[in-house]
Amino acid sequence: MIFENAHEILKKIKQKEVSAKEVLESFLKQVESVNPSINAVIALDAERALEKAKQADKKTTSKSLGPLHGLPMTIKDAFEVEGIVSTGGNPAWKENIPKRNAEAVQRLVDAGAIIFGKTNVPFLSSDLQSFNKIYGTTNNPWDLERTPGGSSGGSAAALAAGMTPLELGSDIGGSIRVPAHFCGLFGHKPSYNIISEVGHMPPPPGSILTGNGLSVAGPLARSPEDLEIALDVLVAAQEQDSPAWKIKLPKARTKNIKELKIAIWPEEPYAEVDNEIVNLIKETADDLKHAGAQVEKANLPISFKEIDKIYSLLLNPLMLAGSPEETFETLSKLNEGLDPNDISELAKVARGSVLKHADWVMVNAMRQNMRQKWREFFKKYDVILCPTSITPAFKHNHNPIHERKLTVNGKDDEYLRATLWAGPAVSAGLPSTNVPIGMSSENLPIGMQITGPYLEDKTCIEVAKIVKDLRGGFKIPPSLL
Q1: Is residue 148 part of a domain?
Q2: Helix axes 304-320, 357-380, angle to 10 degrees
Q3: 41 and 164 belong to one structural domain
Q4: Over the stretch 19-33, which tens digit does the pLDDT of each residue have?
């Protein structure tokens, strides 16, 4: 049962083939068995969850069951959950036990989900690896010496290891999509601001994040069908806007593969990608073409270099917010001597540290122009396929972030360039779904992004269903079989 998809478990609960309590106990048993080596689930609320499961079972005869009735699940530790320690990976917040749920968590609870634990994150959700001084390091179920990604790394590891059937993550630099790619899962970065982030940390507990221009909340799962169920629950106006605003996403453009117009963007000189990833994306494109889709190499509406310039100038001031004064002083001095042609990751951070609001206004105008170019692009294509990150899951490396390196096609590359492919969807507010498409020569999962037009999230997920059928979808890590 623990590796069944959420929609399959929900059906069994509804039809009384299994009780919510039995389902929860199965996941708690798996946590007890495998979490000591993976360290994905870092806080449990088993006693209260079991009581809620018993109550759910008493209501199973009701005709008005929520879409997630009786489903146990965990939540990324970047979201506040009522009654469960919620830290954001920050030692300063390790005693924080919220009195109310984050708005997205509350929507899950209102739909019948039973939250039984929290999953690990990096400090302030600001790394592609998931480790912090409170809970330590989360390992990838495919290889314990490697990271499951970040910042929703605990979410992805718990899903891949059968410790939960559904997760809620967040994404500003690939934090849903990269862990899904590293762990062989489906993860959806929604269109901007269609799922509330009120109750997300950072900012500090009790603060109100109503939108920062980039970050989003979204689901991770073992199937695209589960992503869709979660999306239908989660998508809503923020509570402050709900008296007047409603959100209803359009249906997928088509469910017929022969009507799909797909652009592919498997490689890019500006952001070199491991050849195995490139080849698997091309293989997937060939599969889609042979199945009847119209597939073309993309003629991009804007260069990757220009996208990255806009993205980094929007992202880095956000990521630096709240940093110590010494950090800004160091980066400001570094910025003074920068070559204008320096596009290293450290140079981008330095430029972001001194960006004036007047300059930000101009960058934001560039972003809005880029969004309109993508809008025109998606009049011709339904989705675009591209890499999620530049490598498969890499080995743990906790050195200072600008000293870390990744190896891409036998050459050293900057660690933070692993987030480059997150930028196009984030900077333009586009929906993007990671879908597993195969394995590396080292038997590590490889995924790709399916990015679509703004607010047409269901088109991305519908294409993910087609790709799942062609490429096989989620596989259980061998050590857990």
Answers
A1: yes
A2: 140
A3: yes
A4: 999 999 999 999 999
Same domain, 32 and 113: yes
* HSE toward the beta carbon, residue 346, CA cutoff 13 A: 18
* Nearest alpha carbon to residue 122 among 135, 112, 132: 132
Q: How many domains does the chain have?
A: 2
Give the least confident one: 71-75, 99-103, 209-213, 347-351. 347-351
Distance CA 162, CA 481 (A): 10
Helix 103-110 crosses helix 224-234 at what angle (to 10 degrees)? 110
**Residue 385 burial by Cβ neighbours in a 10 Å radius (0-12, 13-18, 19+):** buried
> For residue 385, how many C-alpha atoms fall within 13 Å in the half-sphere facing its CB?
32
In contact, 13 and 54? CB cutoff 8 Å: no
- Encode pLDDT of 127-181 as tens digits: 999 999 999 999 999 999 999 999 999 999 999 999 999 999 999 999 999 999 9
CA dist 128 and 363 (Å) reads 25
Are 478 and 275 within 8 A, CB to CB? no
- 226 lies in which domain range? 6-252
Q: 297-301, 319-323, 417-421 — which is least confidently predicted?
A: 319-323
DSSP 368: H
In the block, which residue shows the tokens 């009790």? 206
Average pLDDT over residues 200-225: 96
Note whether residue 268 is domain-resident: yes
Clarify whether residues 275 and 218 are in a common domain: no
The string of pLDDT tens digits covering residues 305-340 is: 999 999 999 999 989 887 888 888 888 888 888 888
The radius of gyration computed from the CA coordinates of the chain, to the nearest angstrom, equals 21
The token duo for 8 is 């399959």
Which pairing describes strands 294-297 and 261-264: parallel, antiparallel, or unpaired? parallel
Instruction: Identify the burial level of 17 via C-beta atoms within 10 angstroms of its C-beta, where 0-12 means exposed, 13-18 middle and 19 or more buried.
Output: exposed
Bridge partners, residue 438, by sequence: 446
227 with 292, same domain: the answer is no
Quick one: 373 and 431 in the same domain?
A: yes
Q: Does a structural domain hold residue 335?
A: no
- Greatest extent of the chain over all pairs of C-alpha atoms, in Å: 70
- How far is residue 283's CA from residue 277's CA, in Å, rounded to a whole number? 10
Q: What is the pTM of this model?
A: 0.97
The torsion region of residue 229 among left (phi > 0), alpha (psi -120 to 50) and beta comes to: alpha
